[in-house]
């Protein structure tokens, strides 16, 4: 970059070719967002402190108004870069992009080389050398060229130099027009110099971070330049500027009159208007970013429903933001924030390649082509081999002594502003050895690139996206949609032919058949699918299939692949030869299910009906047979003569309902005819080939025998569908009469089948619009049949059938008194219950439950529900209450626990009379035990307080029946009298319970005497004594216990061996407790030592800062030479100058401490989240600076 010649001449932006691609209209929903607040003034922005992180002043309507986001506005991000600088962004949650094929979007070309002695030159479009500007003397005086700009008509060239000079050249003749040396402060390099739309107005940006306006004048033959400061670098360095440039066809756009200029400083973005007067339109802070990230700006006019408005794309780091600028009908200017684009890479270059497509370059020199509306990454290219030229030396201002801030120098490490530019679908990259051009490929090139690599499937997928209009970055497709589809379809047909030829030629000739099949299974379904999508079945069957038939494996794979398309009805018609081959192939391979699936979905006009029927009959393909008879011959009767079972029932149901079987509908002109034919078939007296032994009505008889409920369901559906069809109603009445004649007069049918018939009839007769007539005597006859007391077989089945008949309304067909009498004789207690409930005789229902052996247990729930639930009168409840008391003995015998729950819930005052009625003592015992035992159940038992005499009665019964449970009861209960309880236990000689009661009474001596009577043998007494002494050892000193043992006359006269076990047991307990105490003490001491050593190591550990610059002033601490300063590092990794922290108020004095510091950045972030102030003792920092380095 030190050569003085115009080594950036390739960067002539070719304004003559600058146009805006208006190709596709973007959905306006993405831009329909409310206007922003009043923008701040330039003065207010210049006076803002650089370290404040103020929120963006515009509303982010992409989050607030999700209804206005278009279909492509889902939150997406590009693929992560493996070497994109800052890695912290990889933690962000992203959404995977679509796997749609985009192909190669960019074409890479290298410009013809220019002589090595002429390092750079201005070139024309055919790369012929045109001008060579400057000289070695100019280079020695001005330094290297650092920035270039050409005006919109390509007549003037502005050159910025490393030593701060600016020159203007006439590109028509190569003359030097101006040399500007006083446009900005001396000693700074020119980073950017750019023309605006006004040829007399330009802007420049120097390495001091300042921005100046250059106004060119020509007075009295003298060329002059007036400079005005737009932004001072003392308030924050600007490192990028981008004026809004307009194409000639948009010169009348209302925004162009303001000469917009976007400026990117190290902390924020500014958009200002240069005309008619200087005005700030908006400001946008970056927020938290990596200080080494390079700010990027890029303007583009974007069409939105035939209205074109400028959009500014800007970023610093991995997030691209978009601002739409528009002027409404009232003249108000709106700056609207759009949906941002999240990329997992550190962006160092950002360019529009057209109005929908962005090209970004990350710090790993990888180009990413991104479609902005859908946020899809279309292509990723590694351009490291270009050896891109960076502007680092100019950002560091090495030519003028390096007098730049550390922050600007950090940005300059990745700056390549002047080495990458774009125009009209092309990007130019400047490498150290050559210039490279990346151009958008047209749609044919993108498809052909995939074809050259023999990626046929991807090529077809990409071509189909062009056909459907879903492709991105489309170039070269013109005309109306129909014409574009036709062009792409022709290309797809060409690809299909190539794909088939390549597959047939490359098929392995030898090897396993599975390998050959897999070879064609990868190709054939793709070919078939695209032919169907293009609606070119003629191409599929007449040309492509003809080519595949030559290979028997390919032929088989092709025929088998047709089935899913036929079944899904994507393929409804197949040519006769192909259909013949398909059926033959499937039949030869015993794939009869596939044959049937295909037949019922195809147009049978192309079939040999006789051959198909015979094949279906031989292989029992009844669905296909029905389909062929119905569709091919309009015959709806023959299938019913040959098909039986569930298929026949379903077929009859569909035919009567006007639906074709197995799918579709019967033609409207045949519906009535088919319905009549089906009814006539059902009521036939005899079949076509009837013998002498055949019974009447064979078809109805067979269907009823096969599945009575289903056949009646079919008949019920026809009654609903043909309420207004008189002829159909006549047929239905005829069928009912036949059913009654066949089933009632024939003993071959079970009660369930007969019951189903009369249940069906009762349900129909109960309807208000019923048209059927049934003789009531038949119901009486059925009742006699079901309630026959002499027939004990199928008792439950007959009762259930009669109950269902009554529940659907059949009760009105019977005499209720006679029905009740027959039900009682037949022991149909559920029928009795049904009748009693209808007459509100609920007390009699209790008798039904008690007599029914299968439902006795349900009586408790019935009584509880009736007495608890509303809806019953007090008289009805009282009758049930009295009836339950009358049968209480039976209830207790049935289940004492449930009886006790019932009594506690509903009969608490009747306990004593109930006990009186229970004459059996064991029954009383079970009842009292359940009543006094608190249990969990479906109906929680309330706490019932019984009198003491009942408790004492229960104690006596316990002594008689379960004496082992008596002590537990005495411990749990407190409602008995002690004197009476002692007398009862003494009467029944339950000594353990007597001892407990005496001890509870306070007579411990008496209780012990009772126990001694039980433990009369010395071994038992010694064992009891040892248990007592072992229990005492936990509370009484061992010497006292031993002394007491030795004084005992029992042990005093014996030998020491007799008490050896006792003493050893006590010593073992002592040793165990001593070991436990020592172990616990050792563990506590070890934990305390580990904690103290860990804290000491943490305090003495050295700290490693994250960066080598101060997090407040952003200056490297080694570069500050003005005054000695302490460096403070916190355990969180942040580094500060002591003076910077003091200015921010992050230190305060405390007693006995020199200074207590707190991390400014951590506290600021916690304040932003609404947290309290965090001191260094509670935050990540420490109470004092952990490292102080004197500078």
Automatic annotation (TrEMBL):
Residues 1166-1191 are annotated as: Disordered. Residues 1110-1162 form the RING-type domain. Keywords: Metal-binding, Zinc, Zinc-finger. GO terms for biological process: endosomal vesicle fusion; protein targeting to vacuole. One of its GO terms (molecular function) is zinc ion binding. One of its GO terms (cellular component) is late endosome. Residues 1176-1191 have a biased composition (Polar residues). It comes from the Eukaryota. Belongs to the VPS8 family. This is VPS8 subunit of CORVET complex.
